[in-house]
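Dear H.,

Thanks for agreeing to be a second pair of eyes. The structure we're designing against is below in token form, covering all 278 positions.
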């Protein structure tokens, strides 16, 4: 069972922080949960948010201002950490975009990362833990994320459309095979075999899919300094068009890559998921 570390009253609901022993990781992991006001015996939709590089389970909950909208819409919000902590892998703290804080939501296959860096499987494990311990409806699960987490959300949803019924992203790394961030992470965690990379590239997965979602929402700031080199939303949009997947790709003049951008549009994403999940 998860250990409750602390909790705070928030918009009539409760903001909680947990730690648990994660099977997929082989180490303790932390995650945060916002539970809106809920009557006994009632289950609510649950939406998972995957954060970006350098973030923790606390970043989104502290910076995005999402709890007010989640309380209004009756949505449970869950945010995991972005990598294992304390794995003691040599070099895991050397770079901000690889190792600690940068698990990239993949299951590593290369030594020394393969033992603990299994964030893809961990998100699926966390979903089951949340469903077992919180008043969450298993038929109404959604997922979204930002940057590296947007990549993770798209990949997890596309590979598990029966587990995640709704998906959206904010400035996602939408074609990591083409991205310097993605190339660095994939070569380190997955090795040189690019067939393994393709299993974690949202644009590749979308091109091979059969329109799994009624709609996908993506927001992208036009002043994002990472847009041209790292993110590639147009590649994902082209893949959606090829398979007939409805995509609302919204571009916003003047917005950058950070949490001011996220906090501006997070309400739209939560309301999008509420409509999709019912």
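And this is the sequence the design step returned. I haven't edited it by hand at all.
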């Amino acid at each position: 069972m998860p250990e409750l570390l602390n909790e705070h009253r928030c918009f009539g609901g409760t903001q909680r922080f947990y730690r648990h022993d994660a099977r997929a990781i082989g180490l303790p992991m932390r995650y945060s949960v916002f539970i809106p006001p809920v009557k006994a015996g009632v289950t609510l939709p649950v939406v998972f948010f995957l954060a970006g590089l350098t973030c923790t389970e606390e970043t989104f909950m502290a910076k995005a201002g999402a709890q007010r909208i989640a309380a209004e819409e009756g949505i449970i919000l869950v945010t995991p950490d972005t990598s294992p902590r304390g794995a003691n892998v040599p070099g895991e703290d050397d770079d901000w975009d690889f190792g600690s804080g940068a698990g990239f939501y993949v299951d590593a296959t290369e030594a020394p990362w393969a033992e603990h860096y299994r964030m893809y499987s961990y998100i699926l494990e966390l979903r089951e833990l949340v469903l077992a311990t919180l008043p969450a409806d298993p038929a109404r699960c959604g997922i979204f994320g930002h940057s590296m987490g947007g990549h993770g959300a798209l990949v997890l949803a596309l590979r598990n459309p029966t587990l995640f019924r709704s998906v959206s992203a904010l400035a996602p790394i939408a074609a990591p095979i083409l991205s310097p961030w993605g190339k660095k992470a994939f070569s380190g965690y997955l090795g040189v075999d690019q067939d393994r990379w393709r299993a974690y590239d949202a644009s590749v997965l979308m091109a091979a899919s059969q329109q799994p979602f009624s709609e996908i929402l993506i927001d992208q700031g036009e002043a994002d300094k990472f847009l041209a080199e790292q993110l590639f939303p147009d590649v994902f949009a082209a893949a959606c068009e090829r398979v007939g997947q409805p995509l609302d790709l919204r571009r916003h003049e003047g917005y950058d890559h950070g949490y001011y951008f996220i906090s501006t549009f997070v309400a739209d994403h939560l309301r999008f998921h509420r409509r999709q999940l019912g």
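Two observations from my side: The beta strands are 3-10, 13-22, 27-35, 44-50, 76-80, 136-146, 166-170, 216-221, 247-252. Residues 259-277 form the longest helix (19 residues).

Warmly,
E.
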